[in-house]
Design a protein that fits this description.
The chain is α/β, with parallel strands linked by helices and 281 residues long. It has one domain (7-280): TIM Barrel (Alpha-Beta Barrel), CATH 3.20.20.100. It is built from eleven helices and ten strands. The strands form two sheets. It has an eight-stranded parallel β-barrel. Helix 4 (80-94) runs parallel beside helix 6 and helix 9 packs across helix 10 (249-258). The protein is globular.
Amino acid sequence: MHGADPRLVLGLHRSRHHRDILTAALDLGVTALDTAAAYLGFRSHSVLAETAADLLPKFTLSTKVGFFPGAGGAEHSLDPVRLRLAIERAARELGREPDTVLLHNPERSLLGMPPAMGHALLGSACTALVDAARDGLCRTWGVSSWDTRPLGMPRVDGLPSPDVLMVRAGFLVDIGLLDATAVLRNAWQAGETWGMSPFGGGDGQVWEDFDPRPFLQAPHDGLSRVQAAFRTAFHLPSAAAVAVGTDNPGHLAQLVQALGAEVDTTAVSQYLRALHRRRQS
């Protein structure tokens, strides 16, 4: 059951990739690490190998491919040849095969594309990841999408079903995106759902104005609003894991503590119904 055994994934999107946050994660029992080829100016894999080669085997490691260095900065591509080369490069740079490879924001290339063309392009990209898993370059594959709505345009009928679908999660995700994710997840018959960016990349001001602790079952003594927001993100949408980025071991420890809280799923359902009513009014 989603959320019954919640998992915290340490994300490296805005991380400085310092060794101390990795050792702190392991000390706290956090053994899942998520990065991407494009992170840290396309140096994430090599920096991880340089600073923490001995630690990487202790993590279940996921990475993403789909962005490439370009003349004007990062460019996006779903070309299956480029994706295959990127997966091979990731294994070389990391010094090990990643456990999971995710197609990074495929909607960037699909937006505005005719549905039939988008279906063919997304299918060839997914097949490249399926082949990589078959060839031992990773154990599982999936899709990481910041905005799942464009993925519904080409439809996913007949495409390989991803082992993992990684999507935005939490109170700051609007109901339209949550609905689009639910439709996509069911249509694609994805395996696990992982959440990401539960705090929306904000500065925390929102949690001073909004208290999510009523969404937790009592008792939840001592938990902060941020902890409650993180724990509830496992149900917005329903997810087996949530990736969160931090370079602060203390913050990471607080999030680990929050995993022990139970979410009031009735309150979450009422919240979602209220959002739907407001959207329709």
